[in-house]
TrEMBL record:
PANTHER family in UniProt: SPLICING FACTOR (PAD-1), PUTATIVE (AFU_ORTHOLOGUE AFUA_1G15810)-RELATED (PTHR48036)
Domain of life per record: Eukaryota
A GO term, aspect molecular function: RNA binding
UniProt lineage: Eukaryota, Viridiplantae, Streptophyta, Embryophyta, Tracheophyta
A cellular component term, taken from the record's GO annotations: nucleus
UniProt-recorded name of the protein: Uncharacterized protein
Region (Disordered): 1-168
């Protein structure tokens, strides 16, 4: 439990205000007994008492005002501190939102970049595959041409059957552009001849 100096001061002032009142009652009784001894002393005592009570009253009022001032300044300070904390929390939340937004933007950009790379890679792979197929066809054609030239030069092979050559060319082109009807005609002609 914290020590509250204002509360302590209030209790002290109330206690000191109550004590003289009780003591003054006792003094009044004793002064009444002694009133026969001298009314002049009573008047002096009364004036002193009234001055004392007035000064105590003033002191009490001053203490109350001082406490009120301290309390209001403390409340103001507390309010200011709470307001600063609230503003700090709000700005922290804003910064956090901004960080998250930037992070999402970066992630989105990375994903777009990956997608672009994927598309670009697939395009280049398709081009490469097409190029490889074309080179393979060229190599096969070149190999056949060289083989035919070599055989012609050797003269070992008799004159080639033109129809057979046509079927060979057709068979090589079969995968490129033949449909079912062409295949049927090709093989039915082969049986006849």
């Amino acid at each position: 439990m914290d020590f509250d100096e204002y509360e302590y001061l209030e209790k002290t002032v109330e206690a000191s205000a109550a004590a003289p009142a009780n003591g003054s009652d006792g003094k009044e009784r004793s002064s009444r007994r002694r009133s026969s001894a001298g009314d002049g002393e009573d008047r002096d005592d009364g004036e002193r008492r009234s001055k004392r009570s007035r000064s105590e009253h003033r002191d009490r009022d001053r203490d109350l005002e001082s406490r009120e001032r301290h309390r209001s300044s403390r409340e103001r300070r507390d309010r200011d501190v709470r307001e600063k904390e609230r503003l700090s929390r709000e700005s922290e939340r804003e910064r956090e939102k901004e960080r998250e937004r930037r992070s999402r933007d970066r992630d989105r950009e990375r994903e777009k970049e990956r997608e672009r790379e994927r598309r670009s890679r697939s395009r280049s792979e398709r081009r490469r595959d097409d190029g490889e197929r074309e080179r393979e066809r060229f190599r096969e054609r070149d190999f056949r041409d060289r083989d035919v030239r070599r055989r012609k030069e050797d003269g070992a092979e008799p004159e080639a059957d033109p129809e057979r050559d046509q079927r060979t060319v057709f068979a090589f082109q079969l995968s490129l552009k033949a449909d079912e009807r062409d295949v049927y005609e090709f093989f039915s002609r082969g049986r006849e001849g």
